[in-house]
Amino acid sequence: MTKEHGSVAVRRGSIGAKRNPASQQAILDAAEAILREEGLSGFSIEAVARRARAGKPTIYRWWPSKAALLLDVYHGFKNLRQFPDTGNFEDDLRGFLNNQLIGFWHGGLCGTVFRSIIAEAQSDPAAAEALFAYERGRRKFAEQLVDRAKARGEIDPDSNSAIIVELIAGFAWHRLLTGRLDGSQDDIEAVVAIIGAATKKNPGA
Amino acid sequence: MTKEHGSVAVRRGSIGAKRNPASQQAILDAAEAILREEGLSGFSIEAVARRARAGKPTIYRWWPSKAALLLDVYHGFKNLRQFPDTGNFEDDLRGFLNNQLIGFWHGGLCGTVFRSIIAEAQSDPAAAEALFAYERGRRKFAEQLVDRAKARGEIDPDSNSAIIVELIAGFAWHRLLTGRLDGSQDDIEAVVAIIGAATKKNPGA
Prior knowledge:
Chain A has 205 residues and is mostly helical.
């Protein structure tokens, strides 16, 4: 259930154009195939249009930038992975970092794609809009991990879910962007320990 | 004293070439002037060479990439700011975020420059090398903030200085790269509270 979530709908809602589901899926499939077969360097709206037998204007009507289309494919890869729901807060944090962030990016296409989108967003407003909307949706979605632990009575109910998620995501982004995804397991444990200690019920009592 | 630190020396050491201090300063001055007067878009090795009346090969001998030179200028701007040493851990964390990271980047040239270097590092190996070395040095330097609090007996002596610094830096990078430096003060307080709670002596005892 947790895999059928939110952020793509949020983003699509903000585009505000009607889509034809059939052609849309054909375009996404073509985009994914190109990315898998040729990598990021072979990926362009032109190549996707050719492969999907769609017009470039059609693609641009639905995805206002290359980054927006890349993000949709990226998001599809991410949705193949389980979002953690172990019933234990620290295990969920571990799973979040290993499954959805650092482990998801490490050594493969997904990290390369996501780095490139972040980079493009720093100078291209359309890429920035796509990334920021996607990222906002993902962050909101990930907050459930903290909120569930609160609802179970496992952690301090006053814990700031948004900031906890952003500390973890920020740490992972930082590792990605400084080329340090390797050998992060001890450091992941250290992050989990810090967040665990910070959210303990009645700390210091 | 804490202002006369470390990371430039670390980085320069790794370049391993002798520099002539006079020309080097002239080049840095020219680079800074161009950046202040024309912004990032006017900044190029060519423009710096012209203004400093230096040869491009001379500049490249000392700074192997545009990103490396930009980082040196950026670092000069940063050194105009006090590195926090208030005698209190949470105040130091606040000062670190406000003075050296989010507040330093907000609304000005420095944030724009740093974003662009991070972006360039995602596709240009020379920029990556310069950024990663700089960032490693800065992180190492910032750890003193945690280590001093340990030495004062203020926080748990087992606190992981490196990970604490990276959580904070990662949070700030994330804000910078998602265009959310505005209105961060409440969130900075929330970050400080989380790190404060996580490093309390004998938590839960």
